[in-house]
């Protein structure tokens, strides 16, 4: 098992609203792993998506759904303010262009 996901890619997190949250700030191991992947820089197209699948056992679509939810979570902001604020700015810029 790696970061809350077992070898088959199944999420082993506790049910919504309870269970082991993983840290004093309340983020699960998977939440912290998602932020960690996003914090890195990636060498080229496809490398990030490959890492998402291999390291987290998630599809890129599911990864971005989780990431978007984390951007609105105050616990994520407390855990990694630089990354969360950067991604919030990017998200707002994209929304403004629509």
TrEMBL record:
A Pfam family: DUF3263
Comp. bias (Basic and acidic residues): 28-46
Disordered: annotated span: 1-46
Domain of life: Bacteria
Official protein name in the record: DUF3263 domain-containing protein
